[in-house]
Structure of ATP-binding protein:
Amino acid sequence: MHEYTSTARVWGLTCPGFPEEVSRARRWTRDILRGSPLADDAELIVSELSANAILHTASGGLGSFHLVLAVSPKVVALSVTDEGGTGTAPKVEQPSMDAVHGRGLGMVSVIAHRVVVHGSHSGYTVTAELFTDTQPGGHPC
């Protein structure tokens, strides 16, 4: 393999902060991953992370959020970057049974093999990684 080529591919999409953009993000993800056994999980993860950006940060309304989808032979990585504006970082919560919110990132952390949050009050990036080659139990080989 040539030192400047790779089998990894990266796509990016910036969406306005409107609720209907979540379905656009899902379609975009599904189109890129067409035929992959990870497409359904990736679509669900992008949907949740995009909705979180719109609902819980300055990305909603007049803002925007940015998606990056990186695909390699071993990993599908999905990142959503918001515009911040909140006093707290995204985190997995254990909400009460009657809570209306707070389950989404927990669901993502169960589906993905790894979830990483980077950023500050001016914007956070949540990256979920799905490994393509796993042993039973969801851990990479």
